[in-house]
Write a structure and sequence with these properties.
Shape: elongated
Number of domains: 1
CATH topology: de novo design (two linked rop proteins)
CATH superfamily: 23S rRNA-intervening sequence
Radius of gyration: 15 Å
Distance between the termini: 22 Å
Length: 128
Amino acid sequence: MPKTVRSFEDLECWQASRELRLFIAREVAPQLPVHEKFHLNQQILDAARSVTANIAEGYGRFHYLDNSKFCSNARGSCCEVLDHLITANDEGLIDGSVLALGREKVQLALKLINGYMSYLKRAANSAQ
């Protein structure tokens, strides 16, 4: 974590999750066929948006345990994004290189969210 965090935008986990969201919106969603517009396309976009939104909402709660709960939701949404990427690849809608890049972005976001959650747990314990 940066030494000074003034906003959720300063959190490395949010920044990595934003990169994942942008990747989904710019690289994956446009590749999906029109008949998936209201199915897989919308689901993967919603899941990717949920990751950053949950991190931001948790940050705004100003309570370690609330923040951690929203980060847990963000982590779940990251895994959902990965599942949708795997589904898209399984169904021949995206190729393996797109899946591999998406998997890397998901893994980085998860790693940073887990680290932030560890920080929140330590901070909560030291505040008691």
